[in-house]
Design goal:
Length: about 140
Amino acid sequence: MNFKNTILLLFLLFMNCKSIELKDVKKQLVLPGYIAEKAKFKYSSKIISKRDFKILSVKIDKIKTSFNNFIIIQLPKGTIKKAANILKLGEYYIELNIPINDIEKESIEVITIEILLGNKRLEIEGKTLLINDLLSR
């Protein structure tokens, strides 16, 4: 009986281990620093992976297109990585900027990141947490 419980516990432990996860999905209004620049939304998140992977695209549920123009930064080093490259296991910060007229200011979106993990295409999702603009009152 004790052996069966141990096997069951190990099985449950391994089933809860995620190879890759999306954390801290945030949306923030970024106001222009000078007149020629336009306001935009900055979406950011942290990706934690236990295996090598590649980010194929980023999607926002309220916008029909997928985005390939995002920034990937390896944490804690701060090294900027190219989206075309395979990323090693570890933590990464990902950032995407969208023009303000494409989406509502107060809306909460679901961010979907399409990933190639080994030979499998996966989608990981997270709801945005709205970060208020720190400069406006």
